[in-house]
Please model this.
Amino acid sequence: ARSPAAMRVLFLVGLMLSGASALLMAPRLASAPLARSEAPLMKEVTRIEITIENGEPLEKALQRLKRATNQVGHLRILRNRKTFENNHDKKIRKQKESLQRQARARRSRRAAERL
Model:
């Protein structure tokens, strides 16, 4: 039987050691598969980086960041995840997106043919 003071000291030492080992251990990759609701929609992570030139106005840099974010589609993905989307609505949205991509490709082909 140990005294309460000795137990408290042992507890604090154990707590400090566990905290220190967490700092020293390499982070583990998730070994268990993600649950279906946690599975990311994006297949790969796309980082957006902009470099601010010396003397460049902040508004201009924010515009470049906004443009880059829109090109990657982060905001669209966040908007889609905001509320639950059943399979029927998802199918309709994907068909609309496909039509928009096809129309954009047609416009760019026509513009390239004119040149």
Q: What stands out?
A: Residues 30-40 have pLDDT under 50 and may be disordered. The chain has four helices and no strands.
